[in-house]
Design brief:
4 helices; two-stranded antiparallel sheet; alpha+beta; six-stranded mixed sheet; disordered N terminus; 8 strands
Length: 199
């Protein structure tokens, strides 16, 4: 029944209430929408500041970069390190996000890993580059994510965000594709993206 509803009546994002007050959704209400089938995996939304935000469509280049990167990382992680892809993450408050890659220490439920306990969070961006560099960076910094990276799927440039604070990251640097980026908490994952087999 729900599949038919989605096929016949797809939801489209709107901006009709731009500048007007909106109802705020809680994480509990968001979870109930998923449980009831009102939201499905096909909807691809995040809950940001109480609003349902549609995620940008992922192109072929995004998926190619993500696949090559996670396969490379999986082979180099230690036994006490976990890597989750497109995690339905509830890092605190009324927030639900789906970062492309989250690496954390073994132990907690993946969806409930506290943000300061993450070792590395990565977004791979094509059409969402500005959003990932601005709004997402502010969210992750305010939560205390210690290292956040945004990889431009087109150029393979990596923007590294370190030293989180409530008002944003205090240390931000962009590394070209031929440069080597070494995660502060995961030195075994030092990598030059230009060296991966990405066409």
């Amino acid at each position: 029944m729900n599949e038919i509803t989605h096929a016949r009546f797809p939801r489209q994002p709107t901006q009709g209430a731009e500048g007007l007050p909106r109802w705020r959704w809680t994480l509990g209400e968001f979870d109930k929408m998923i449980e009831s089938g009102l939201l499905t995996e096909d909807d691809r939304v995040e809950l940001i500041d109480g609003e349902l935000v549609p995620m940008a469509a992922k192109g072929n280049r995004h998926e190619l970069v993500k696949t090559e990167l996670i396969n490379w990382m999986f082979r180099r992680l230690g036994v006490n390190e976990m890597l989750t892809v497109e995690l339905g993450w509830r890092p605190g408050g009324d927030l639900y996000v789906e970062p492309d890659v989250v690496i954390y220490g073994r132990g907690p439920m993946p969806s409930q890993v506290p943000a300061p306990d993450t070792l590395l969070v990565i977004e791979i961006s094509d059409s969402s580059l500005r959003y990932d560099l601005d709004r997402k960076a502010m969210i992750y910094a305010s939560l205390g994510v210690r290292e956040y990276r945004v990889i431009d799927a087109t150029t393979l440039e990596t923007t590294v965000h370190l030293d989180p604070a409530p008002d944003g990251y205090r240390n931000i640097a962009t590394v070209p594709s031929h440069g080597t980026v070494t995660p502060h908490l995961l030195p075994a994952l030092a990598l030059s993206l230009g060296g991966l087999a990405i066409g």
